[in-house]
């Protein structure tokens, strides 16, 4: 029995993401955006993004930050504006975990490959 490769979902554009949210959700994202836009520029740079990711409990390297900015930077400015920020939050930060990711994480702890994890393995 062969396994089919997992289909990679197409990432939504910032405009697609914005149009799929309620006004309340947009307002909540805007409040968060303003809180992290420390210099009031209307954009978030990689140093501000690092603070966001750390506050979300994600230790992220400089190359990973640059990759995230590149992925959501629809206008090529090198920074993240509000619609791009919302796209980042929806597509990357609040992304649902897949079965494959859960299995992979489980396998890290199931050292003896028994199908369950003991407290010693944790």
UniProtKB/TrEMBL annotation:
This is Calmodulin. InterPro entries: CALM/Myosin/TropC-like, EF-hand-dom_pair, EF_Hand_1_Ca_BS, EF_hand_dom. Gene3D superfamilies: EF-hand. GO terms for cellular component: myosin II complex. SUPFAM superfamilies: EF-hand. SMART domains: EFh. Residues 1-20 are annotated as: Disordered. One of its GO terms (molecular function) is calcium ion binding. Residues 1-10 have a biased composition (Basic residues). The lineage of its organism: Eukaryota, Metazoa, Spiralia, Lophotrochozoa, Platyhelminthes. It comes from Macrostomum lignano.
């Amino acid at each position: 029995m062969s396994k089919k490769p997992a289909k990679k979902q197409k990432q939504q554009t910032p405009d697609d993401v914005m149009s799929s949210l309620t006004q309340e959700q947009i307002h909540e994202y805007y409040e968060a955006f303003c809180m992290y836009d420390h210099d009031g520029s209307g954009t978030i740079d990689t140093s501000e993004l690092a603070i966001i990711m750390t506050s979300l409990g994600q230790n992220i390297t400089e190359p990973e930050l640059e990759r995230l900015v590149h992925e959501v930077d629809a206008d090529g400015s090198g920074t993240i504006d509000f619609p791009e920020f919302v796209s980042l939050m929806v597509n990357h930060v609040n992304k649902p975990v897949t079965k494959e990711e859960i299995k992979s994480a489980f396998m890290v702890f199931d050292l003896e490959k028994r199908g369950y994890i003991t407290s010693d393995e944790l």
